[in-house]
Amino acid sequence: MDKKEKKYPLDFSDKEIFEEAELYANKRIYDDDPGATARALRCMVALTEIQRRSSKRVARWSIILSVTVIILSLIAVYFSYNAYKTSIDWQVKQLQILEEIRNDLK
Fold first, then answer.
1. Burial of 16 per CB tally in 10 Å (0-12, 13-18, 19+)
2. What is the arithmetic mean of pLDDT over 6-35?
3. Counting beta carbons within 10 angstroms of the beta carbon of residue 47, is it exposed (0 to 12), middle (13 to 18) or buried (19 or more)?
4. Inter-CA distances, 8 with 15, 28, 81, 87, 104, Å
5. Count of domains forming the chain
6. How confident is the model at residue 1 (pLDDT cuts 50, 70, 90)?
7. Could you tell me which of 42, 53, 52 has the C-alpha nearest to residue 19?
8. Which structural domain range is residue 65 located in?
9. Is 52 part of a structural domain of the chain?
10. Is 60 domain-assigned?
């Protein structure tokens, strides 16, 4: 056999795992068949793998979202500091103008 055999459930796609779980879930699990326990365990392993994959996706998206929020916060801090600095500079210029006007009036 040249091809590497797929390991269940790690090498299966989500769709294949769902199909496999549905196949075994539709059979009677608690019958006298000796393979019933194995089918039940295989179904549980499949659902655990799906849950693990979903958790990885959620964790990945939450990290991406967190980094995006941090970047947007830093941009907001930059613009607010820039506005504050501009306001202070304007006030200083206004005070200088008022000082010149007061000196001219003397």
1. middle
2. 72
3. middle
4. 13, 21, 55, 64, 90
5. 1
6. very low
7. 42
8. 14-78
9. yes
10. yes
pLDDT band for position 30 (cuts 50, 70, 90)? low
Residue 51 lies in a domain: yes
Amino acid at 31: D
3-state SS string over the chain?
CCCCCCCCCCCCCHHHHHHHHHHHHCCCCCCCCCCHHHHHHHHHHHHHHHHHHHHHHHHHHHHHHHHHHHHHHHHHHHHHHHHHHHHHHHHHHHHHHHHHHHHHHC
Tokens 């959620």 map to which residue?
58
Question: What would the two tokens of residue 66 be?
Answer: 């967190």
User: Does the residue 102 lie in any domain?
Assistant: no
Render pLDDT for 51-70 as a digit per residue (tens, 0 to 9).
Answer: 888 999 999 999 999 999 99
pLDDT in tens, 34-52: 676 777 777 788 888 888 8
Token couple for 34: 């000796």
